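Subject: Protein record for review, amino acid sequence with backbone structure tokens
How to read it: Take the token row as a discrete description of the fold.
Enclosed: The protein record, placed directly beneath this head.
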Amino acid sequence: MAHAYTPGLKVLHETKIDKERRLPLKGEVVVEKGTSVNPDDIVAKTDLPGNVQMVNVANILNIDAQDINEVMDVNEGDTVTKGQQIAETKGLFGLFKSNVESPVDGTLEVISDTTGQVVLREPPIPVEIDAYMRGTIKDVLPEEGVIIESDGVFIQGIFGIGGESRGNIVVATQNREGEITEEMITSEHTGKILVGGSFISLKAYKKAIQMQVAGVVVGGFNYFDLEDILGYTLGVAITGSEELATSLIITEGYGKIRMGQRTFDLLKEHSGKFASINGATQIRAGVIRPEIVISLAKEELKGDSKDVDASEGIREGSLVRVIRAPHFGRIGKVVELTPELRQMESETMVRIAIIEIDGKNVEIPRSNLEMVETD
């Protein structure tokens, strides 16, 4: 039987989830291996170097660069405050003095008698990394971070915007065909993760942001509305760093596409439970998918956990999703994986799969497919 190894989306009702929480540069890990943590618990912290400010003292005081040390009131390594005098000329007969004040709070790092400039560094910026999800510290990465392990539900979407968020799940629609409208979103949804069926409009999503909803999970969204939200046209890039109060996760594709039955049923089953979500997405090399994590207590586990990284690959009968136009977001079943190369409209020769979508067989390049892994 033909077989193709293709990364796929995961919709798992119970699995082992490992999450790496790493600092942007070396710092201090504040938890120990084996410790139980909650999503808001800090697991590591560090300080980012403050911004640098250059002040051209020689130019401001109209002196030669080599004379800068004669007019400085502070030395290298001294702490200064915004508005503090750091240099002053002697003036003429003690009169007509000129001075330079620090533009920021910080530390004077360098006095250069070559350029006549001083370098001021603002205070360090503290950075703290939280646990993101409930679990146990599986491993400690000294000075860098931790790996957290949890048992729970793991669902991946096809696309998302906005970074990490968390809150209790609220299913807003009766079924997976339902659309989230403006009227459905109220102040009661502040800090919650709102789950819909097939679609959320731009106006409704903006209402969610206004109401400070933690996140929205729906089947589809209008691609052209992304520019209105982001302020730029989305190209081939990574998302997740957008400063959005409400993360958005699309599980199926662009347009009005009903959410997958397994995905909707799983989210509905866990309605009211606490979930962690992340809208970060990268389609090309180093694939990153938006995700929904619902950690489960021991008494909620059924004992049929599946490895989150396990993938049997695509084969005949596999459920797959198309990730390129013209069938983007559509889900179908693999009828056949043809061994020979086929010529496409672009005249390139590729290996294809024959997919049954809505009762019709369609030839699609294997590279345009991803497997929908379920359990």
